Amino acid sequence: MTLSATERLAQVRRHAGVGQLLLGAAIPVAVGGVLWRVASPGVAIAIAVTGIALLALLAWRRTRAFDTPWLVRQLDARRKDLDDSTDLLLAPPATLTPLQQLQQARVRERLRTQPAPDLRTPWPWARIAALWLTAAVVIAAAMLWPGRTGQPGALTPSDEPVPTTPGIPHLVAQRLHVAPPAYTGIAAHDEATLDAKAPVGSRLAWTLRFAPQPVAAALVFHDGQRIALSRDGDTWQATHVLARSTLYRVVAAGTEDQPRTKLRRLDAIPDRAPEVKVLAPDRGLSLVTVGQTRWALAFEARDDFGIAPTAMLKLTLAQGSGENIAFKEQVMTLQGSGPAKARRFTSSLDLKALGMAVGDDLIAQLTVQDNRSPSPQRAQSPGLILRWPADLGQESTGLEGLVKKVMPAYFRSQRQIIIDAEALQKQKRSLAADTFVTRADAIGVDQRILRLRYGQFLGEEAEGEPQPPPTNDADDEHTDDDGHDHAGESARADDGHGHGEATSATGASFGREADVLEAYGHTHDHAEAATLLDPETRATLKKALDQMWQSELHLRQGHPDQALPLAYKALEYIKQVQQATRIYLARVGPELPPIDETRRLGGDRKGIAPRALGALERPDDEDAAPARVWAALANDTAPADATDLEALQAWLRTNEARVPDALDLFAAIDEVRGDPACAPCRQRLRALLWSASPQPPAQVPRRGAVDAAGRRYLDALRQEPSR
Which of 498-528 are b and which e, b meaning 16 or more Cβ less than 10 Å from the residue's Cβ? Predict the structure, then answer.
């Protein structure tokens, strides 16, 4: 019974699938019939087969609903004598109870005496007939509909001259249909003449009528390409995809002995690449301002046929310094706004979300593409850089790539001395007098150590043992490990008020400028090629030392209020020194040999080798053909040499890029070949050759003949002076 149920289900599914295919196949067949007429047979067959395949897949999925539960429900509904026990027929006897086995036998016996009904659904013949009849009408209408190229009224009269010899085929009507690529958005149109200007990739369709009808006809291009015309009734048709600018003429069989028809011109308009303009920011390098959290970008992209609605923004985050620089890239998709030919792309970048921190660089570059199909053109914007300098107050622009700052850490601790002195002055009322004086004296010691270190740059003697330079930059904020920039000293233990006893550390000598310059100034090969401080800067640093000495004096006496104005003045001078700390390389000019004054104006040519100027020979010129034809066309009475014109045409094919308008020159050559006696044609070709001919090489002009006055002057120069 299980096998019978399986066969019954397969029969139902097959019947339902064929019915659905028969009902829906009329639609893709009708579409294929229309495409057979308006497009091509290949496209029509492909669309029809694809549509039928999709319908078959859909029908197969729908027939999966006819399963075993569906079969049980249908039999129970149509056979009441089965007592809703059809499912027992599909169950194995070993799994049934004795009562269920008895009922299974009764149901099987009833089905044997009276077979099950046919469960196949009848086909909707009325709908099937209606759809196929509609498809037949559509296909017949498409096949019988007159083609657009075959409409006699759509052709325009030809401007070709009628041959004088009767019975020679000539063009009497014409039409050129231009269908630009879909991405350009230009509607298809008809040209009144056989000349056209169209975008590259346009599909051109010719419809021509001859009288009388020729045996064959073709389009002959100036580069030798031929496209045969096919006859359709009383018209001749041909198609061509415009890839580049060209010249052509319509040639009918039987007109070989007749004058040539004029050349027609097809100009291919190239699709220009898109252009990207940066609207914001207004500079290529931007610096992060205080409190800035976002970076606004705005671009404008233009194209002759439209920009794609989306663009890619490439972000590169550069982190680190020196050789330890890491790059992290990510790409964002931006949605454009505005018309297709001038779209705008904007974005506001979250610097925190991008992971940008102090000392990082963020580079942004937008890539857009146009709508050209199948291979769109791309363009990139200039790279925009957002820089987060380590010290916003000290970052410089303009000449930062021309000079190199040196020793930036040596002039940063005077501000901390001021901070400590101001904090101590505020605590004066809450501190004991001895404690106040002790702390003021400690700050004075810091001032003394700083003064001594700066004094070493001026050649002053150090008080005590020389101290090494600091190994790391000191921050503007006072931390427990900066030690107030005590050169070579370790951090002091905090005593609860920001001060403590300093412990000395050993290090290299710090008193000599040459050692500092060699270690930090990058003097490279010649130590004498650079100076550490110029005289002006040394004078400013001397003023700072004087103010430090006065500030130290008041601090050691326990008067920070009197020391603060002097410390501020010292800080001002130090800032001037900090900005002047540059290394300048000496400029060394060329060392030329001295001039021997004894040989000047003496006329002695001893030791000077004679050098004769060779004659300027004209090199072998591959451009002889244009010059030869240009010279031959000067004589209006002499006919143009066909051999020279052939050579000129061959030269032009290999040098089209050198000629401003090669097609115009091709047409002028063809006119002269067609009518050698045409004087205006010859003059036009000669004028075009003049502009296309290469410039002659520069030559030294020959001196004119000596006249009588000049000869007397030369004779007078040769005479010996009288004693």
Answer: bbeebeeeeeeebbebeebbeebbebeeeee
- Rounded Cα–Cα distance for residues 648 and 631 (Å): 13
Q: How many CB atoms are closer than 10 A to CB 388?
A: 18
Secondary structure of residue 246 in the 3-state scheme? strand
Read off the tokens for 684.
């036009």
3-state helix, strand, coil in the chain (%, to 5): 40, 20, 40
CB distance 364 to 325 below 8 Å:
no
Q: Which two tokens stand for residue 124?
A: 């909707």
Q: How many helices (H) and strands (E) does the chain have?
A: 16, 20
Q: Can you name the residues that pair with 320 across neighbouring β-strands?
A: 325
Dihedral of alpha carbons 567, 572, 578, 580, sign: negative
Task: Kindly compute the dihedral angle of the four CA atoms of residues 25, 30, 31, 32, in this order, to the nearest 10 degrees.
Answer: 90
Could you give phi then psi for residue 566, rounded to 5 degrees? -70, -40
The whole-angstrom separation of Cα 559 and Cα 439 is 11
* Residue 153, pLDDT above cutoff 70: no
Cβ atoms of residues 297 and 227 within 8 Å: no
Convert the pLDDT of each residue in 237-274 to its tens digit: 999 999 999 999 999 988 877 777 888 999 999 999 99
Residue 17's φ and ψ, nearest 5 degrees, are -65, -45
CA 76 – CA 83 distance, rounded (Å): 7
Q: Which stretch of DSSP H or E encloses residue 130? A: helix 125-144
Q: Give me the helices (H) in 342-391, please.
A: none
CA separation (Å) from 11 to 6, 18, 116, 466, 605? Answer: 9, 11, 14, 108, 120
Whether 413 contacts 450, CB under 8 Å: yes
Tell me the C-alpha distance between 312 and 550, whole Å: 63
Do 487 and 425 form a contact (C-beta atoms < 8 A)? no
User: What does the pLDDT average to over 665-686?
Assistant: 83
β-strand pairing of 384-387 with 285-287: parallel
The alpha carbon of residue 560 and the mean position of all alpha carbons in its chain are separated, in whole angstroms, by 63
H/E run at residue 648 = helix 642-654
Q: Are strands 196-199 and 189-191 parallel, antiparallel or unpaired?
A: unpaired
pLDDT tens, position by position, 475-518: 444 444 444 444 333 333 333 333 433 333 333 444 444 444 44
Q: Can you give the pTM of this predicted structure? A: 0.47
Q: Which DSSP string corresponds to 383-404?
A: PEEEE--S-TTT---SSTTT--
Residue 281 neighbours by CB under 8 Å, 6+ apart: 296, 297, 384
Length of the chain, in residues? 723
pLDDT averaged over every residue in the chain: 76
